[in-house]
Amino acid sequence: MRIIAGKFRGRRFDPPADNWPTRPTTDLAKEGLFNILTNRLDFEDISVLDLFGGTGSHSYEFISRGCNNVTYVDKFGPAVHFVRKTSTTLGIEEQLKIFQMDVFRFIENARSQYDYIFAGPPYNLPTIDIIPNLIFEKNLLAPGGTFVLEHNPHHDFLNHPHLFDVRHYGKTIFSFFRNEME
Fold first, then answer.
1. What residue spans of the chain are helical by DSSP H?
2. CA–CA separation, 53 and 100 (whole Å)
3. What fold does the segment set 43-178 form as a domain?
4. pLDDT tens digits for 100-132?
5. pTM recorded for the entire structure
6. Where are the domains of the chain?
7. Which terminus of the chain is less hemmed in, N or C, by CB atoms within 10 Å?
8. How far apart (Å, rounded) are the C-alpha atoms in residues 72 and 98?
9. Are 36 and 167 in contact (CB under 8 A)?
């Protein structure tokens, strides 16, 4: 795992993830996603929610690019431990809020809105298709905000009313949803 850009550019981290139930986003897909986001977001002025955060790769990337308000959520203890340790190593404890809990429970109880939300759930998660609706029903995405869901070709959100873009990187697909300004 490597950080692509920003103040931590080129830093590599090797999570002991051989037996983890995580599926880190490939460097190619992550680089493609962040090339898109760089043209759409002002990293220094947004709040970010990283759901199914796994190794923390997306969270580190945002903080490296200047984001000071990132919330990471994952329920898998070893992954959360790794993210806490990496956060200390990078000295980013002030910018990164870490929650070890079930993502759906977090969504149900969240009281904040976020300018950007990323969800990278396990591809075999049986409830992956309800995630976009939950984000909008719980009003987690700020007006004008963007939500990106990483998934595989077995899921299709083309008829979702908030979908505005879809990008393919091999078998990795990013579906982009927007909360239109009121």
1. 27-38, 57-64, 77-90, 103-109, 131-137
2. 10
3. Rossmann fold (3.40.50)
4. 999 999 999 999 999 999 999 988 899 999 999
5. 0.94
6. 43-178
7. C
8. 5
9. yes
